[in-house]
Amino acid sequence: MPWPRVARATTVQTGPLLLAWAAIAVGIARKYGDYSVFSIAMVLAGTALLAAACLVRIPIPAPIGAAGAAAALVVGIVWPGPLNHAGGAWYVVSRVTCGAAALLAIGTARWRRLLVPALAAVAVCGAARIIAAPAPAIDVHVLLQQSAHHLFTADMYRATWHGSPAGQLQDVYPYLPWTSVLLWPFRLVAGDVRAGLLVADLAAAGLVARLGRPAYGLLLVTYPLFAFGLEQSWTEPLLIALFAGMVLAAHRGRPGAAVVLFALALATKQHAALLVPLAVVWPAFGWRRTLRAVVLGVVLVLPWFVAGPGHLWHDAVAYQLHYPVLGTELGIPALLLHHGQRVGFWLAAAAVLGAYVLALTRLPRTAAGFAVGGALVELAVDVTNKQSFFNHYTLPMALVVIGLAAQSAASRPAPGGRMPDHGRSDDAPASGWNRHPRDDQAGRAPAAVQRRVRVGRRHDPRLADRRPGQDPQHAP
């Protein structure tokens, strides 16, 4: 007997995805992204819930998911994270404003006017944290500062990082070159690349708020230990802002901008390449635009490859594949290592293959499906990787939020009346986390559509006096 064919979902599920986001956010905050039994349990639970939501319908309404997300934000308020510096008054300012931003984010689900003060609080929080920790003891800050400063005078893939903490990276640049290119103006003007990361965070939040609900945008910058991630100079905000801009550009009918933003993401960090197969099957993007983005991304990286192909390959690819499993990393290999077991590459390959199968066969081929599928694939890599930490999980968390925002945008026509991605979450249309103030009551067309219909009736004499349900050919 042949297996019954399961229909592809038409929407992503708001409630389960918000709960998955909350579980991962709390899990990575417990020990700042390092291994603990609680942390790995929460991360695996969130990953399993996300995968299950891609496979079957889970009866978790959006208000329950919103409550879980709000609870995660409260955890971030009461759990300040590590104090790796003298801190002082600026650290207190950062703590207070981060807590205020999280409270405003919760309120924004009902009162969207709180978006601007919430973003202002995030900006003050981030700036204060950068001032409070001018020189964090982490190799990422050192190598980004020096590579951006010497961007036009030295090859980052042949450099040695002076002042990098012992036991951390000394002569390896683990990113693709456009990470430093994008951060160079902020190193030049502000003296610290983290100013660029803060701008990227704020831009991503604004773009997602513009795309969907304001509360979704604030989830990108108010999750637990957000300021800690900024302090450590982790570069995921660049990718998040680029993906948010790409999805918004596609929704607004600007494919050229979407292609350029995707190409920049591909030239900035290796993990962006995992979303290429999903972009190919997304009709609003398609294989031609994906090919253009890949070609442009290669062109952007080409100068550094020509200057030293072996050095770029070693730092950006080979080093990533051959580093050992760390007992402090937050993933299944560390869990097995703590129990005296080791696992080979087959686990990661199987997890990523399974994630692609789910994403390509079960998720809708919309902007929401693209982003949520990307989150699933990125999570499959993170939980099976040999060195996954706090920052690695913030990217799939952000992609979940971008997907939810894209789905909420699909229920409203884009400028010009075009609606590139159809579908609306049907699990809780009245929830503040799944309803836009410009939307009309459930069951009614958006106001812009109604206006176009009324205008059309005025200009078409056959429809001017048409009663609801009447055939135009028999209108008086």
Counting DSSP E segments of at least 2 residues, the number of strands comes to 0
Radius of gyration equals 23 Å
Largest sheet: none
The share of residues in extended strands comes to under 5%
The shape, in one word, is globular
- Helix-strand pattern: HHHHHHHHHHHHHHHHHHHHH
- The N- to C-terminal Cα distance equals 57 Å
Mean pLDDT: 85
Q: What is the count of DSSP helices, taking H or I runs of 4+ residues?
A: 21
User: Which structural class should the secondary elements be placed in?
Assistant: mainly alpha
Task: Write a structural description.
By secondary structure, this protein is mostly helical. It has 21 helices and no strands. It has helices spanning 14-30, 37-55, 62-78, 89-108, 115-132, 139-149, 178-189, 194-211, 214-222, 226-231, 236-251, 255-266, 276-281, 286-307, 309-322, 332-337, 345-362, 367-384, 390-410, 447-459, 461-464. The longest helix is centred in the middle third of the chain and has 22 residues, at 286-307. The protein is globular and about 55 Å long. The N and C termini lie far apart (57 Å).
